[in-house]
Here is the input.
Amino acid sequence: MFTLEARATQSAYASWLSPLLALALTAVTGALIFLAMGKSPGIALYIYFIEPLTSWSGLSEVAVKAGPLILIGMGLSLGFRAGVWNIGAEGQFIAGALLGSAPAVYFFDSTNPLILPCMMLLGILGGMAWAAMPALLKTRFNANEILVSLMLVYVAELLLVHLVQGPWRNPQGWGFPGTRMFPDVALLPMFFPGYRVHLGTLIAVLIPFVAWFVLTRTRFGFQIRVFGSAPLAARHAGIGSSQMVWTTLLVGGGLAGLAGVMEAASTIGQLMPKISPGYGFTAIIVAFLGRLHPVGVLLAGTVIAVTYIGGESAQISAGLPKAVTGLFQGIILFYLLAFDLLTRYRLTRVKTRGNTA
Amino acid sequence: MNDKPLLQLKGIGKAFPGCIANDDIDLEIAPGEIHALLGENGAGKSTLVKIIYGVLRPDQGTLCWRGDDMTIDNPASARSLGIGMVFQHFSLFESMTTLENVALALPPQDLDELRGRLETTAQDYGLTLHPDRHVYDLSMGERQRIEIVRCLLQNPSLLILDEPTSVLTPQETEVLFATLRQLASEGRSILYISHKLEEVRSLCDRATILRGGKRVDDCNPAEETAQSLAEKMIGRRVESAKGHSGTATSEVRLKVADLSVRSDEPHGTDISDVSFSVHAGEILGIAGIAGNGQTELMNALSGETGAPQAGQIEILETDASRLGPMARRQLGAVFVPEERVGQAAVSDLTLVQNSFLTSAFRMGFVSRGIINWPGVSRYTEEILDKFDVKATGTDALASSLSGGNLQKFIMGREILQGPQLLVVSQPTWGVDAGAAAAIHEKIQQMISAGAGALVISQDLDEIFALSDRIAVISQGRLSAPRPTGEVTTEEVGLLMGASGPTADTDSHVHA
Here is the structure.
């Protein structure tokens, strides 16, 4: 018999070591899986993890994929620090994309450059509105925000499908689901011809630094930390619990909504039935892999983006199935949680002697 | 008494990482002796007792039971030798009855037969118990009786009691002492752990005094004075607390009128129709046994729970009933709850961050949402300095401070905010005598300077030492405050047990 025993102390160093160990073990496990599939593990791992970083276009693609992950992961990590479990960022991402795209859909021949900031703002509001529902139900009826936010993901997905197949469908689109292409003024500017890195990517890189300032220097950031680690102390210091639920959900929803509209207004350029390869869910892994720390989220977002791009090139050059991407992300999370458990607890053997005290 | 000691400890040593809890301790308990183990918090009493009861193994030394060397592997083998223990924190299931709780601790047997034995044993020792009442319905004194009877049913030769009177009224304490004397007269030995000197003097035949993990003396407490015992325990002279020089003025600092609050805890106590006021220049003490509504009252006053109706709580003559904790602090009040870790302080934050927790606005550390950390840091240094807090620095984690130092830090954090009203619960709970005296002195200084204070405490000595007026909380109701000089400990004790579940009526079984 084994039992888990809480460790007396846990070092900060161990909490940063566990993501690194998780990544290393993921590579080892990946190698074994490739071997079992009859592929050379060395080449497959190279294609998967290294190749995307060896060319400018690969780096640009990684950055484009990392953008939404970092934005959403950052918002989620604020909530997770406060003990508010928003699992529905995917829905908030879609809601942001929907509301934010409305100007581009309705004014499809616009040439007014103000349409873009307007779309960004609406995107943030859309994400916030979607996150406001779990916040309201949590604070009014104590409804579990995990369930509510998760279920709203499916509502958002169906709403998107309905709009792009119905009212918002492109009349000149030969019946395919999808809106008209956005006008040029409604697209985020790109920096380098031939590469897809855009203004949204830059914003995504800057947000963690803003979050870092908020967490360490402002009263709001302080409140988040206290509320998450000692709710009674938060109450003693006058930090209202509904206020924290509302603010963290709204910030998380707003950032996911911003990521959503920026995705629609950049690489896609229109709305389609599917606009996210699961960014909202993968960002949960990003938040935890990054230890809920702004700089950590920035790094983790990049690492996870590599698994997306590596997965694509592994399909093309190594003939591996698409499912490998999800598999890798799952294995990373699995090892991360395992190591986190072991930094907090130690596995001890229990003597199975009749010792009923 | 017979010559052979029942239990003899020789050279017991036990070290934990970073501290030597027991260092070469000798102890002898004769049959039929009531032996006190006296010492401050952290002196090593608990470690020694855990070694005797088989919870911990000593690193060094031997243990002799009735003249034979023994190793006691676990509490079960301690019990089979005839050692019983009543812990300070009871191990009872609240939702089960007395009888069920007793049955759980014993080998499986017929419940009806056990009921008979339980009732006889309880009667023999003058311990009133009702086998079918649920534990959540019982007072602390009654719960303790269950623990004692549960031990007695196993016919122990040595009974260990850890701080048994900390949850009792003076009257309940008398009943307990009568029981203990009866047990001793039957030849059973008792190891009585306490830091209350008067109790030890009146009850115990011998006392072993521990300080800093070492045995410093072995004496007959009846031949000592409380002062001499205290000096042995602390290692230096203790100054008895000086009173404050403030005089109560007509200026009202806190006024509570017909306050009723429903508890938000499952077995909590509702507050009903509590009224009192605290004036500038005085300390109002509220005595009472734990769980009689102190927590609920404290949280209602600080604004943490409940939403009293308008006009029920006035702080500095402003209606604060609907205000949150920070707004009440802005009016000039500070609050120190009983729970230090997790409520008054956050253990995984630094002292600087903990200083900011409640001083954010009163000290003006926030401007446009941005925190002035250098300012907070200077304030923290001032707290450590003026309140003599032993810490590695302002960036030490709160969890690295001992209980006494953390309490000094929290008191410092509040008092240095220069409040006109201090509301504090259990100011010196679990704090060593030196730190307790320091905390009392700081409270007195505050009052001399014109502030008012409400002190809620289960420690009657503390209430009598500090208060100008005393009220008693029982079952969520507060008695009328009376000047300290006009009440006796006995009167307060009666009020503490008044109309409570201690009154042995069956009227509210299954209430």
Q: What stands out?
A: The radius of gyration of chain A is 22 Å. Residues 241-268 of chain A form the longest helix (28 residues).
